[in-house]
Every structure is written in C-alpha cells, then in structure tokens.
Amino acid sequence: MAKNPKILSIVLAGGEGTRLMPLTRDRAKPAVPFGGVYRLIDFPLSNLVNSGYRQVVVLTQYKSHSLDRHISQVWRFSPLLGSYVSPVPAQQRLGKHWYLGSADAIYQTINIIEDVQPDIVVIVGADHVYRMDFEQMVQQHIESGAEFTVAGIRQPIEQSNQFGVIGVDPEHPNMIKNFQEKPTTTTGLPDNPNQILASMGNYVANTKALFEALALDEKAADTKHDMGGDIAPYFASRNEAGVYDFNSNEIPGSTATDHAYWRDVGTIKQFYDAHMDLIAYVPEFNLYNQDWPIYTMSGNLPPAKFVHAGRDRLGHATDSIVSPGVIVSGGEVHHSVLSPNVRIHSWAQIVDSVLFDGVVINRRARVYKAILDKNVVLTENSTVGIDTEHDLARGFTVTPDGITVVPKNTIVDD
Ligand code: ADQ
C-alpha cells in the first residue's frame, strides 16, 4: 500500500426508505430533511469532507430529483482543485436492470472507480445521523492488513434483526470471524450478552479485492447483491475482514454526552427521537460543535423573528431549534424543531413536534407530537396529534407510539 493511498469515497444513497413513509413518498431517504436546515445526506458528506476526503461519488436511484438538486446546489466543489461530489444515477450500464442491491450499485459504477484508480474505497450509507472521522478507520484498516473493514457499534441484542451482526475473533479482536446480515436469532457479546456488535453499514476496502468480490458476487446464483448480506460475509469467510470500533473514534470538540453518537433514522420513531436528541437540554447530538461542522445551505433567508402581537399573544419558542426565515407571531412553540420559512400565528400551540420547510400554522391551531412535511397548512382552530383516532381517520400516519405524520402540501381543515 502506498504511503499516502489514493482514496475514493462512495455514498450509497439509493435506498427507498419505505419505513419512513410518507416522508419518502416524493423523495429519496437521504434527501429527507433533518434538524431544521439539513438533509440526511449532509451528515455522511460532512463527515467525509471533515475527514479530508474530497473525491466523492454519490450513488442515487430512487426518486432522486430533490437529492440530485441538493447535491449539486450545496455540495459543488471545485473540480479544478481535484475535489468533487458527483451524483451518479443508476444507469443500466451493465444490463437492463436498475441497481439490484448496494453491491450491484457499486459494481455498475466500476468504470468510474477505474477512472480514478484509488488504492482504497471508503463506502458509507446515507441514512444515519452521526459524526465520524473516516481517516481513523482507514488508518486501522491499513495497519491491520485486512482487505475489507467494517465499522461496528454496540447495539441491544433485540435489534439484531435490523443490523449486520459482527462476530469477532477472540484471538484477533480487530478481525471478523463471521458476519450475519439481520439474523433472527444470535448470541450476545462475551462481556455483555444483551448487546451485539452491529455493522454501521460503513466499509473500507482495498480496491482490487473489492473488485474481485463484486465480480464474483455479480455471477453468483444465490445472492442479493448486497454489501451487508453478501460482500461482508464473503470477506469474513476468507478471514480478510477487519472491524473498526466506532467507540474509539475521536472527534474534535465532542463531549462525553455526544461521543460516539450514531442513530439509524430508518423509521418514523427513530427519526422523531433523533430530533428530540437535538433539543435535549444537554443535546445528545450537538449541532453546535464547529470543530466538526455539519455543512448545508438553506438559501438566502432572513433571520428568525418573534413577534409580541398582543397582551396574550407573546410569540415565543422554548427548548426548540428555530431556522432562518421563520416568523413566530403571537403563537407558542415548545420542544420542537422548526425548519426554514415556517409561520406560527396568534394563539397557535406547537409542542414536541417537527415542522418542515414552509409549514403554516394559523390562529388557534394546535400541534402535538407530530411531524408536518413541507408546506403543510393548518387552518384556524385545526389540530394535529391531539386526537390520534381523528388523525388516522383523516388518512394521516400515526405510529404505535402516537407520532402523527402529515404528508407534504396537505391542508388540514377540521
Ligand atoms: P440496510 O440499511 O437495511 O442495512 P440497505 O437497505 O442496503 O441496508 O441500505 C444501505 C445503504 O445503501 C443505505 O444508505 C441505502 O440508501 C443504500 N442503498 C440501498 N440500496 C441501494 C442501491 N441499490 N443503490 C444505491 N444505494 C443503495 C445496512 C447493512 C447492515 C447494517 C445497516 C446499518 O446492510 O449490515 O447493519 O446498514 O444501518
């Protein structure tokens, strides 16, 4: 391996995100707004850029229009300086099919990787909220001699069917003995039977070995062409897979509270909870750590404004994140996330909720424990999340935990 290996990063951004419906009705999961001003893809891309990796291809596929637009508007680097983030849509390059799985998506992009000729490929998912210095993982990968390294994090054993489960070799704790994708039953870790070591879906691979694995996988009969389901187990079976412990990743400016924070936001409940983590008194995930910034661009917007519209109409927000372009005029907001251009009018109440761009809450309307997608309008006196039976009857999504989701552009009129 060269002293300064050439690194190409690949972001897998083609997932459908069916469990996030209706937020993924019109957009790819990585394009789902998060934390007021961001989209999910801003997290992996910020991590890559902060790690010093500026040659990035983003593999898109499903409803990728808003994702492509966001990448080209926000993440345009100077190709002159050798830095780029390029969206690569599925192209049916190697046959008349869309990408079958994440491994096939990379295989179909092989010509782009060959053009760059990297020594190492860093492959990351696009659906998680976290900070990570990939350079630390790459260093361990090189030192360990593994052909393929998987980032691992401890998770409760009950969730093993949602993750790739890593079995570590007790004699060589940096190497993977076996890898099972989303097993229905598994055993816990030797030092804690209630936990497993889960794959984070982030991989570092030597390019040559990866190409060989992908080419074999492409021809195999019994495969889902999936990085977690097929490629990671292939390297594990050859004793060539290493594991990188995410807990050892050091981020400048992080605190004991948000060290090694990582959330899969694949379901509405997880997505909602991760928002609540942002607004906790001591945030579980600190957006304000400028030593490892999360980048985005939310347009040329004026600052947020709070209007005292009358004696009992003191427009205010507490324990909340309020984005640029918002006006809270005579309404109350508590423990909520407001995205740009939201309007809250007199006597309205918003509690424990997440409002996307352009939402309008008219007078005396009330919102509790809800996610309102882009441009939702609540007419005067209407409610969301107050009566979940009524929400269901109106066709809104209500999770078993009582989170109501109102789809994009809905006019809520009781
Ligand atoms: P999942 O997230 O269930 O598990 P998958 O649906 O393949 O796996 O998604 C992984 C990433 O690839 C996501 O970012 C997704 O958007 C993207 N993706 C999926 N299909 C794609 C395609 N055809 N083209 C481009 N991108 C695609 C994975 C691993 C598990 C691991 C969890 C961690 O398989 O082993 O534990 O991530 O959340």
Provide tags for this entry.
alpha/beta, UDP N-Acetylglucosamine Acyltransferase, domain 1, binds adenosine-5'-diphosphate-glucose, Spore Coat Polysaccharide Biosynthesis Protein SpsA, Chain A, 2 domains, EC 2.7.7.27, 414 residues, seven-stranded mixed beta sheet, 9 helices, ATP binding, nucleotide-binding, 30 strands, glycogen metabolism, six-stranded parallel beta sheet, elongated
Mean pLDDT: 93
> What is the CATH superfamily classification of the largest domain?
Spore Coat Polysaccharide Biosynthesis Protein SpsA, Chain A
Output the CATH class name of the largest domain. Answer: Alpha Beta
Flag low-confidence runs.
none
What does the model show?
Pathway: Glycan biosynthesis; glycogen biosynthesis. Alpha-D-glucose 1-phosphate binds at residues 99, 164, 181-182, 199. Its EC number is 2.7.7.27. It catalyses: alpha-D-glucose 1-phosphate + ATP + H(+) = ADP-alpha-D-glucose + diphosphate. One of its GO terms (biological process) is glycogen biosynthetic process. The protein is of the alpha/beta class. It folds into 2 domains: 7-274, Spore Coat Polysaccharide Biosynthesis Protein SpsA, Chain A (Alpha-Beta Complex), CATH 3.90.550.10; 305-412, UDP N-Acetylglucosamine Acyltransferase, domain 1, CATH 2.160.10.10. 21% of the residues lie in helices and 29% in strands. It has 9 helices and 30 strands. The strands form 7 sheets. Strands 5-4-1-6-11-8-12 form a 7-stranded mixed beta sheet. A 6-stranded parallel beta sheet has the order 14-17-20-23-26-30, with no helix packed on it. The chain has a 6-stranded mixed beta sheet with strand order 16-19-22-25-29-28. Strand 9 and strand 10 (172-181) form a beta hairpin. The longest helix has 13 residues, at 207-219. The protein is elongated and about 70 Å long. The model has no long low-confidence stretch (mean pLDDT 93). The structure holds adenosine-5'-diphosphate-glucose (ADQ). Adenosine-5'-diphosphate-glucose is lined by residues 12-15, 29, 59, 61, 99, 101-102, 105, 125-127, 163-164, 181, 198-201, 226-228, 264.
